[in-house]
Amino acid sequence: MLFSSITFLYYFIPALIIFYFASPKRFKNCTLLLFSLFFYAWGEPKYLIFMLVSITQGYIFGILIEKYRKRKRAKVFLTASVLFSLLLLGYCKYVDFFISSFNAVTGLSVPLLRITLPIGISFYTFQILSYTVDVYRGNAPAQRNYINLAAYISMFPQLIAGPIVRYSDIAKQLDNRTHSIDDAALGIRRFVVGLSKKILIANILGELVDIFKSSDEKSVLFFWVYSAAYTLHIYFDFSGYSDMAIGLGRILGFHFSENFDYPYISTSITEFWRRWHISLGTWFRDYLYIPLGGNRVSKPRWFLNIFIVWMATGLWHGAAWNFVLWGIMFAVFLIIEKLWLLSLLKKSKVLSHIYVLFLVMISFVIFDASSISDAFSCIMSMFGSSGIPVVTFESIYYLKSYAITLIIAVICATPIPKRFAHTIQKNKWGVIAANIAEPIAVTMLLAVCTAFLIDGSFNPFLYFRF
């Protein structure tokens, strides 16, 4: 079930709100768990067993790890839980990737298993891993209530697109959280803003990306338009889903951390990854990079740690070599920046922004490619090396057709709208106007998004690989 669907907006959410707020406090987590399991099972009920088995092993091993924390047995239980989680993820997500890679190297024809990837398995696997590790480190107590742990792991708002919510961050909220009209209002506003980013910007730019891919009259200009459109498309799609998750969590009494912080205003790749998919970046930092030694080791080992983390980051996004290349590309530039480039980038913000946007656009071409060869072919075409024309009538036509959306997307990818709103609210009359205009604007945005969905507009789901 998609957040951006009529079924979710006008059937699932109203039913959840009615039952959730009608439930006594001690039954709210149970209600949330039942709705989350229903949400997950909507599209592929047979894969619910994977989630329930993962939750159960995390629950059992968490208690055992805490019980034997001061003994060596705790490390054995932690290792068992981590291996179980990673092997299940590897089986569902990577086994065909490894088989096809093996076939390519050896020339053999080992048949693929063709396993359908359970939606959200990367997210809930990482949440279970962080839970058991935090219990082992003593950063969080083991959850003795199975329903509470299951509600945390399966919580539908952040299940399919994040943010990756750590147990230690919401453990207290699971046992005792407050609900208020103000929080619900903030949650609704955040959800509708995220929905609008998805429906009114990401989906429209996704149409342009699909038009480019099906075009027989590609040009250098069209390749650059595609690159810009996809770069904006994936940001608004991903951040839109995160906004919706944060908003839904707020309505239910949870305070999820931010996942995006205007990454396209960055002046270095280092800064970009502090602003993009923040929950994933901090997860890899705390549970892989630092345990490997971080930067507290020799320089060669430090560089190796960075490469390991970014290869893992690439593979987390998808089981294909172009994702590995995508991760390695960022590892290389992060190392270059740490060695000497950061000091140069500080000298010119304009050139720094151009540098970041150029690399990010190239990186997302690699990210979106069907293969490494397809990625290199696309990149070379962006610089006219394939003998394609610089401009065609079709590229001009579609650039003009989508120009307004592209301009809106560029502006909304910066803090300009937020700063404008804050400026208005600096005086009494501005606050009054904002209080009147905000609910009207939110209602109108929801109505427009609904109209797009009823019309059957382009509405892709990017997160099947996660």
Give structural notes.
Helix content is 72%, strand content 0%. The chain is mainly α. It folds into 2 domains: 6-177, no CATH class; 183-267 and 346-454, no CATH class. The longest helix has 34 residues, at 73-106. The radius of gyration is 23 Å and the shape is globular. The mean pLDDT is 91.
Any key phrases for this structure?
466 residues, mainly alpha, 0% strand, globular
Bulk shape: globular
Give the CA-CA distance, first to last residue: 15 Å
Order of helical and strand elements:
HHHHHHHHHHHHHHHHHHH
Global mean pLDDT? 91
Structural class by sheet pairing and helices: mainly alpha
How does the major sheet shape up? none
Radius of gyration (CA) equals: 23 Å
**DSSP helix count?**
19
Q: Strand content of the residues, in percent?
A: under 5%
Q: How many separate domains make up the residues?
A: 2
Q: What proportion of the residues is helical, as a percent range? A: over 70%
- Can you tell me the residue ranges where pLDDT is under 50 for at least 5 consecutive residues? none
The number of E-state strands comes to: 0
